Every structure is written in C-alpha cells, then in structure tokens.
Amino acid sequence: MPLRLKSLELHGYKTFASKTLFEFADGITAIVGPNGSGKSNFADSLRWVLGEQSASLLRAKKTEDMIFSGSEHRPRAGMASVTITFDNTVGWLPVDFSEVAVTRRAYRDGHNEYLLNGQTVRLRDINELLAQSGLSERTYTILGQGMVDASLALKADERRRLSHDLHDSLAQELVYLHLELDRLAASWDLTEPVRARLSRLRDVAGTAYDQVRHNLAGLRLRPQATLVEAVDELAHSIRERSGLDIEVVERGEAVRLPTDEAQVIFDLVAEALNNVHQHARARQAAVTIEWSAAAVTVTIADDGIGFETAGRPLPGHHGLTLMREAVSALRGQLGVDSRLGQGTRLQICLPINPPDADPTSILSDPS
Questions:
Q1: Cα 274 to chain center, whole Å?
Q2: Which of 20, 34, 102, 263 has the fewest CB atoms within 10 Å, i.e. the most exposed one?
Q3: pLDDT of 329-358, one tens digit each?
Q4: Which of 96, 114, 89, 91 is nearest to 104 (CA)?
Q5: pLDDT, greater one: 194 or 125
Q6: Residue 81 · residue 87 · CB < 8 Å
Q7: Which residues of 112-128 are buried (b: 16+ CB within 10 A; e: fewer)?
Q8: Within 13 Å, how many C-alpha atoms sit on residue 357's CB side?
C-alpha cells in the first residue's frame, strides 16, 4: 500500500506569511524557483509538521524562528501552522478516514500544539499512528539544503553526530514494538505469569522510547553553538515534549571550551535533565552556568521528590556513577544535594586550564 501525499498547507510558517496550499498529483513533483523563493523553508515544513524537535535541523534556534517575522509591508504573524494531508482510501493508516490531516502549530510563547483531522492530540499520538502504519519501515528521508555536500566534508566527530540524528527513527520502531506487544496481550488467552511478563516488556519499551527521544536530543551539540546556546536549545526541546519548566541562566564571562570538554558538559546536563523529567516528578528545573577565570560551574536544580543520597538511590539515579567518572576524567568535581520531598541539586565544577597551568590548583570547591 503506497504512501500518498495529497497536499501541504503553510500559513505564517517562516517566509510563508499568507496561507499557501501545495497540491500533489500522482508521480514525481518538483518545486523550482530562484534563491530566496522559499524552497528550503518548504522542505523544513515537512520535517516540522511530522514532529521534528531539533532546531538546528530546521535551520533555526528556537520555536519563534518558525513564525513569519514580518516585513516592510506585512506585520509579523502570531502563529505558524502547517498541515500535511495523506490519502488514506486504501487504509495504509489504521484510522477510519479516507483522508488524514496532521497539523502542527507554534505560538510566540513557545507553545506547540498538534492536531489530527482537527482534533487536538499529543506528539506521541502522531508518532504512534505513523508507527502503526509501518511508515518507519518505509524510511522516508528529507535531505535539507546543502546536506549532501556537507555530509561529504564532515569530520569523524561530525559524522558521529549526524548518525545520532539518523537513528532518531529508532524511537518510532520502539513505539511499533510497544503496540505489537499490546496486540499480542489482547489476542491470546495467556497465563498470568506470561501476561505479567508482557506487561513488563511493554513498560520497558515505553521507557526506552522516552529515553531515546530525550537522549538523542542530548547528543546534538552544534559545532558553532556556545555552551549556553546548546543547553538552552536542549531545555526548550525537553520543555516542548514534557511540559517541564526549565530556566537556563548564565553568569560571568563565557570561555570557549575545547569541543570535547563542551560535549561532556552538555551530555552531563542532558543526562541530569533526562533524570529530572523521568524520575523526579518535578514541575520546575533550573540550569545555571557560572564562569570564572579558573573554572566553569554548572548547577542543575529541581523541585521534585528528591532521594536519600546516603541510602540506596531511587531508580534512574544509577547514572550518577557514570557522571562522576566523566567529571573525574576532566579533573572536575561533582556534588549532589537531595532530600526526600525537597528536590535535588546537582553541581558540576570543571577547571578551565590555561597553558602550563597546574590543574590541581585552579579547581574551586563546588560546595
């Protein structure tokens, strides 16, 4: 059953200030035009409406960049909207509609909403629908402007980051696995032990899905981004998906760190925020990046349930051991302050090494 794209409607998305409808006939469709006519923005809109969360892949820094910013003759838009419509007469999508329209809207306050045939849904609902259709197995691919030339010139570490982006499709496969387990449980007369094991497997698949979505975001440190820009993008991505209110604050004069050190700090922040989202039951979190001449100190605090640091850690906090090892490898220090019912405060302090400096003399106590 072939995928059949019927139309794409853009309104207020990037340079498409007015409502613009693209209709697609059978066969191959080519969109041509001079530089600046919006061809790349059209390609970006396909990624965006299907749930892309990486601002860098959309050639943007934040959600507001998706919205028409205004011109000499047109005021700026308050909302961006893209609707993609599929022909479902052959039933390749498992819903009772001959047409399926997926809509994504973004507002200037950073809020996103998703609609399926006009009804408000979650991003996860969209992902589950596409996974049930087997769309991930059909492996649609969108190559943005300059990606082919750029990929040929990538360095080894840049190719690694690109591979992480491509493996985002793993999330859809996990959703498909979860749904197949649901069908299996509903279709057979199972003994209680087998049913309990299936339930556990469904939980594992669901947890793995959440971890993949969040951890992949933590692997995308753009080469030209400053540390605070990268952390801010990460926080925004998690905020959009989970509703967790994350504030990012920078103090002092920033120092350009070596790429590998910046990547380690970024990964640690991503791991910490991932734990906050999945295990802390927090409503708010804050990331503070503080620079001095000798060190950079990163503090991640939340208002969640906390845990007893002296006793056995709660599920999800075994990652602290790996975090300590990563910090220690850079001659840094990691401190944790957490109490049940009072949230958690994680602090990472890493030295900034000038040439020929004694690394043991420049690290301040993070407490």
A1: 11
A2: 34
A3: 888 999 999 888 889 999 999 998 643 333
A4: 114
A5: 125
A6: no
A7: bebbbeeeebebbebbb
A8: 14
Residue pair 48/58 in contact (Cβ under 8 Å)? The answer is: yes
225 CB contacts (<8 Å, ≥6 apart)? 56, 233
Paired residues of 103 in beta bridges: 83, 115
pLDDT tens string 229-282: 889 888 888 887 778 899 999 999 988 888 778 888 888 898 888 888 878 889
Contacts of 183 (CB under 8 A, 6+ apart): none
Dump strand ranges (E) for 60-192: 79-87, 99-107, 112-116, 119-121
Contacts of 188 (CB under 8 A, 6+ apart): none
Task: Give 319-334 pLDDT, tens digit per residue.
Answer: 677 788 788 888 899 9
The pTM of the full predicted model, rounded to 2 decimals, is 0.45
* Rounded Cα–Cα distance for residues 334 and 262 (Å): 16
For helices 259-275 and 192-217, angle between their N-to-C axes, nearest 10 degrees: 140
Q: How far is CA 314 from CA 11, 204, 212, 280, 307, in A?
A: 47, 17, 21, 10, 6
Rounded to 10°, the helix 169-187/192-217 angle is 170
Q: Is 302 helix (H, G, I), strand (E, B) or coil?
A: strand
Q: Quick check: helix, strand or coil at residue 168?
A: coil
Check residues 65 and 353 and name the one with the higher pLDDT. Answer: 65
- Tens digit of each residue's pLDDT (9 = 90 or more) over 105-134: 999 988 999 999 999 999 888 877 876 665
| Residues 332 and 339: beta-carbon distance below 8 Å | no
Distance CA 355, CA 189 (A): 69
Q: How confident is the model at residue 27 (pLDDT cuts 50, 70, 90)?
A: confident
